[in-house]
Each structure stands twice: as C-alpha cells, then as structure tokens.
Amino acid sequence: MEDKIEQIVSNIEESFNKLNTAVEQLQKAEKIASSSVDTTSTLITEFKTSIESIEKLVKVDFANEYNNLAGLNNQLLEKINKIDFDNKFHSVEQKVVDKNFDTKFSELSTAVTNINFDNKFQSVEQKIIDKNFDTKFSELNTVVANINFDNKFQAVEDNLGNQMKEIRHLKTLMYIVFALIIICAISTIFSHG
C-alpha cells in the first residue's frame, strides 16, 4: 500500500514538474510573441513614415520641379520669339556675298596650277630610285637573320610560365581568403541569430 501511495505521489510530482515546465515555456512564448508584436508595430510605423516621405516627394517636390521647369521653358520660348531670324539670315547671307568666294577660289586654283606638281613628284620619284632600297632591305634581312630569336623567345616564355604559376598561387590564396570571409560572415550571422 505504501508503495502505491509513493508511486501516486511520485506521479503527482512528475505531473507538477511537467506542468511547471509547460508554464515556463508558455511564458517564454508569450515574451517572444510580445517582442514580435513590438517589432511589427515598429516596422509598421517606419513603413508609414517612408510612405509619407515618398508621397511628399512625388506630390510636392516633383510638382514644384515641374512648375519651375515649365516656367523656364516659357521664358525660353519668349526669348526665341523675340529673335528676328529673317534679319539674322539676311545679315549672314550678305556677309557671304561680300566675301566673294568665287575670286578666292580662282586665286587658289591659279596658285595650285603654278606649283607644277608633276615636276615635284618626278623629283621625289628620282630620289627614291637613287636610294636603292633593295640593298638596304638585303642588309636588314641579313642582320635579322643573324639575331638568335629562339633564345630570346625561350627566355620570354620561361618568364611567362613563372608569372602564370605565381598568378595561379595568388588565385588559390584569394579563393581561400574569400572562403574564410564567407565562413566568418556565416558564423557571425548564426552567432547573432
């Protein structure tokens, strides 16, 4: 009989412990829910403020800028309407007529004719023939043939190979650093989450 009473008391204690744990969890849930409501209320207030600012920007500021621009446009149109284009074009046309370009072009044509380009080009052509470029190119070809480009290209190729290896090492190091940064960022997010 005592064993049964002890068992009942033990069961009651275990039930009270479970009930106490459930009450604690409900209190924690209530705190979380209250915090969530506060956060939601703050977000709603911030959204309302943002919407009001945007509404002011669109309705008031944009309207003011549009009105300013329309005013400037009207002033420009008034200034354009005051310009006497017929008189301006007539003035320019008269200046072109006064310049007498026909005479100028005639003088230029006579000067070009008097230069006698045929003689000038014949003189240049003779000087080119006198230079004997065939001999010059033959000498240059011999000099180029005597230079050992294989060794020079091999040295350049070796340098490029070494630089490519260094670049690969740098890339690998950059990937490692990038991976470490991502891991640090993720661990920071989870540690604050």
Which tags fit this structure?
transmembrane helix, 6 helices, flat, transmembrane, membrane, mainly alpha
How are the SSEs ordered, and which strands pair?
Layout: H1 2-82, H2 85-99, H3 101-115, H4 117-131, H5 133-146, H6 149-192
* Class derived from helix and strand content: mainly alpha
Give Rg in angstroms. 47 Å
Reported for the largest beta sheet, the result is: none
Could you say which overall geometry the principal axes of the C-alpha atoms support? Answer: flat
Order of helices and strands: HHHHHH
Put simply, the count of helices is 6
Number of strands: 0
**Strand content bin:** under 5%
Oligomer: single chain
Instruction: Report the end-to-end length measured between terminal Cα atoms.
Output: 54 Å
Q: Uncertain regions: pLDDT < 50 for 5+ in a row?
A: none
Helix fraction bin: over 70%
Global mean pLDDT: 77
Explain what the structure shows.
The mean pLDDT is 77. The protein has 193 residues and is an all-alpha fold. The protein is flat, with a radius of gyration of 47 Å. The chain is built from six helices and no strands.
